Amino acid sequence: MKKALYPGTFDPITLGHIDIISRAVHLFDEVTIAIATSETKTPLFPLEERIRQIELIFQGNKNIRTIGFTGLVVDLAKKEGVNILLRGLRAVSDFEYEFQLANMNRAMSPDLESVFLTPKAKFSFLSSTLVREIASMGGKLSSFVDPIVEEALRKRFQD
Ligand code: COA
Question: Are residues 9 and 35 in contact, defined by beta-carbon separation less than 8 angstroms?
C-alpha cells in the first residue's frame, strides 16, 4: 500500500491545499494530513479545531486521514510507517525553503522521500496568512477556502 504524509500548519487549510490533496489521492492509496502544532507561528485556530475542520471537509473519503502532531516530521513518518512526504510547490519562491526542508529531513531520515505536487495556477498566490488577513477585514473568502473554513473564520472574527 502506497502511503503519503502531507504535513503542514493548515491555519487554515485553503483550496490550494485541498487541490494538492485531491491530486495526491490519485497517486497514493492513503494520504495522511499531518497538522503540526507549529507553536512558533501562534496559530489562529487551535490544533483540535484545525483537525476538526479538515476531518469535516474530507468526511467520507476513506483514503484520507487527518492527525495532529508535535515534534519532528521524520519521527512521525517513522511512527506512521510512511516513507513519502508530500509537499506543495506554489511558485519558484517556495523552492528554496522546500529544498532546505527536504534535505534536512533526508539528513535525519535517509529513506524518507519528499514528493512535490503543484496546485492549479489560480491557487499559486494563495496562503493561509493572506486568508486570515482577508477574514479579519471582512473580505469574501469563498474563492479561497472551503465553506466549513469560511464559516469558522467568520465566527472567529465576528464574535
Ligand atoms: N495552497 C495554499 N497555500 C499553501 C499551499 C497550497 N498548496 N502550500 C503551502 N501553502 C502555504 C501555507 O498556507 C502557509 O502559509 P502561511 O505561512 O501564510 O501560513 C505556507 O505556505 C507554508 O505552510 P505549510 O505548508 O503549512 O508549511 P509550514 O511551513 O507551516 O509547515 C512543516 C511546515 C509543519 C511541515 C514543518 O515546519 C515541519 O515539518 N515541522 C515539524 C518539525 C520538524 O520536523 N522540523 C524540522 C524540519 S527539517
Answer: yes
